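ok so I'm stuck.
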Amino acid sequence: MGKMVFVLPPGRVNVDAARQAYLAAPDGTPWVTYSRLVGNHLILEKSFSDSAVLHYPWQLPDGTWITFHTGTLAETEEPYDLGIELARGALSELREFLWEVSFAGLSLPSEMETRVAGIVREFSEVVIPRLDPVSRVLHLDRILLAILEVGRQLVLRLVEELLAVKIRSTRRLPTLLGAVLGNWFPEDTVGNLLAEAVNAAVIPISWRTVEVSELRWDWSLPDTQLKWCRKHGLKCVGGPLLGFSPRYFPDFLEAYAGDWETIQESCLSFVRTVAERYRGKMDLWLCGGRVNTGEVLVLPEDERLELVAGAFSIIREVDPSTPVLLSIDQPFGEYLASRPGKYPPFHLAEALLRTSLGLAGIHVELAYGYFPGSMRRDLIQITRFLDLWSSLGVPLFFTVIMPSGTEADPNVWLTGRMVQPGATPEKQAVWAGELLQLLLAWPQVQGIFWGELSDHLPHEFPHGGLFKAPEMPKPVLSVLTRLRKQWLS
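replied:
not stuck anymore, here's the structure
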């Protein structure tokens, strides 16, 4: 049994943060981690003894959290100072990123290296424990905020350069920018504003919605959504046809739990029915959703993958001219810290692309600032993530969602999901603006979709919609509208 202990600074002992902490390999792959708090000591254990990297959500002075990580640490008898190690890891990553972009020829303000050198000097003073604990944590907060701000400026400068390269050959980008329509029946109040903000839409075609009882069909929702999209000239993404998430599969399928052959037959029959009905009407098919995280119908990982492979073959047979994507959830792999899995997200995508399926690209679901979901990270970490996933060599598509509040959400149908502390509509818009512009600039990204339409409709992620109510758009909708008008065709 491997064990690491960290001392938490005054005022930073938080049970929820400890729940989200995990140990990982140097490449970022999480290991199953058992965490507990004993006083101000965070104790993390894993099933084997080895050096590890700690990922931990640190509370910033404005009340929001952001996940930093340490460098690779050896197991020792003495506890580590949590704040010091997170700052050391963040500073090391900043210096490395600054060197990389400078070496690549990115033009940077002359004072950038001076600012980083100043952060290094301040950190060297905090490492020596001569300050009282409260003053020390205030210094650490200042250091971490400075690291975040310099890193943000570096990434935004990189975004400017990438966008400039992209538009040299075309005045408008062909990237898809859309929203997941969910169970929204199109109407003018939301529809007119949405049509100005997007050039694409995801039509979920939820099995639970269209097959209301066994062999009794109701196609009114997807049919209406498709008609609305075509009226406004939007590209259409259909799916996921097999979504391994709560409230996707119809209730009657639960009766067959454990009966693999019947489940397989039913699932593939549904996929064929949908593909035949909408043949030639979708611009992209999303074959499977959350294939790496879904825990429905007691299906193990290998059986989920077998279902997706079968569904893919049917779509290619029925609608061979429409590209097909596969969706990966929680791409940083946080779920692996609480339950073992055969394939980390990136390795699963890599393995599937090596098969003979012929996937047109990978779709990534990024529920940013939720737990379970993807913990909020700084822009340098997101850039590293994009670098890695771009090495797959195929187009990337993203569904992004972020919270705009922390109070109880009465229309959420899945309870128990933790929301980023300190989230507000204004902060949602700022976070979204920076992340979406980075994704838009990235060469391999060909589509970006917002994951929830409106908070007044039943939904999965608290406060994640573009609208609070039909006549109450949030500031984040203006972010999408601005990006579309500025950059997209």
